[in-house]
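Lecture notes, unit on protein representations.

Consider one protein chain, 445 amino acids long.
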Amino acid sequence: MARAHGERSRTGLEWLSATEALALIEAGGVTVADWVGACLDRWRARDRAVRAWTWLDPEAAMAKAAAADAMPPGARLRGVPIGVKDVIYTRDMPTSFNSPHFEGHFPNIDAASVAILRDAGAIVMGKNDTVEFAVNGRRAATTNPHDPARTPGGSSSGSAAAVADGQVPISLGTQTGGSVIRPASYCGVYAIKPTWNAVSHEGFKICAASFDTLGWFARSAADLALLADVFEIGDGKDRPVDGLEGLRIAICRSPVWHLAETATRAAMGQAVDMLMANGAQVVELDLPEPFDGLTAAHKIVMEGEMRSSFLAEKRLIGDALYPELVGILDNTAGHTKADLVAAQDLAARCRALFDDLAAPFDAVLTPSTAGVAPVGPDNTGAATFNRIWTLLHMPCVNVPGSRDAATGLPVGLTLTGPRHSDRHLIAVAGRLGEALVRGSERQHG
């Protein structure tokens, strides 16, 4: 019989990873109600400062927790509390896209990703704040848990902050430019933008259909893998990653390296030192000339596809949309269909080329962001170091563990690789993240 909520102390339970908590629940050491209650306590204590949620019903969450405790063992995500970015449809919660034009919008259907997680036993706690339409316009009210004056990043602002602040162990986000990897870097958590279309994008607000990707945030690589299991993401690589020794890691500073700030340059250097100290083989990877055009190509493809994905809003809302979106929909940049085809063709060529370039390595290490989180909320940072990988469909995992010497703020790094190498990248990310944390602890005593 499940213990009544509140019967035991929940101190610290909110910081458990999902894999840790599930093991405790299976062993009878803690209940789902204990765990969810601890997350809600953290939310109550911190919501005024962090503001990660647009919708959360604590009574409904506790009712779901009690139901999970009454379930027989076996559900893969039994009682795991999960946040959902407020551009992803949920049947029992509003989905507003943080737009004044969709306040109170109720799709009455779950996105495919949400339906899969619920079927596995997860508890959808609520909706996480986002930048309007996950593009631009109105900013999320969310602040960075490490410094309320700074942005958590966009557009998956609330999703990253809620995980970083201990309010939920896992949350869903989406990425069109850098909307999963950038907030993860700024907030200091793990995150994955999987290979494009490895997880169904049915049921979230589409911006650029040919590279929009659903991803997720967590405080451990094991939790990234947990959802990868549920979403049936595999890459056919059975070799375990027991440590960094013997791994072949390529260092790719990418065509926009000149925009990297001191914090990111230092984090890359520290990671290279850590890899070599732990027996990894490190090789420089310079991308060939065609990759120089991918940042511009990303913009052309994104804006071209937005003109179809937002056509309904243009017809129904028109100039009441925020000005930048109106300009994109009116094609004030003057991009032609020939420009769009050329950009799409360049991306297709570079996808196959990068698969070949990255194939000899266990992972490719590259920056996640230009530097630490800038002062917000208007400046949510830039997707400078993410756009090419999103356009190329490559899986990306943000690895936390580094901190800027000047500010103490998190600086993430990205591991990427060929398409459908997601699981191997998660495994390598876990080992690199552990090493970075050990190094940081030694450095700061």
